[in-house]
Request: fold
Amino acid sequence: MTSQAVTFKAVSDDTYRQAMREAGVAPELVEVLLSMQIMMRAGELDVTSSDLADVLGRPVTPLATAIREILSR
Reply:
C-alpha cells in the first residue's frame, strides 16, 4: 500500500521491556504491554468475534481498506 518495507523483529521479553522503558513508557504499563505480547505469542488473543461490528452497529471496515482510505487523503 505504501511501497515501504516493514520488518518484523522478534525480541526477547527482556529486550522488549527495556525498549519500552527507554521509550519512556510508565513501568506499570510496560508490564501490561509485555503481558499482552506474551499472550499474543501464545495465540491466546487469536479469536474471531463479531464484538466490534455489534458495538458499531455495522460491518467493520477491512484493515486494508481503512489504510488505503487514510493514505489517499
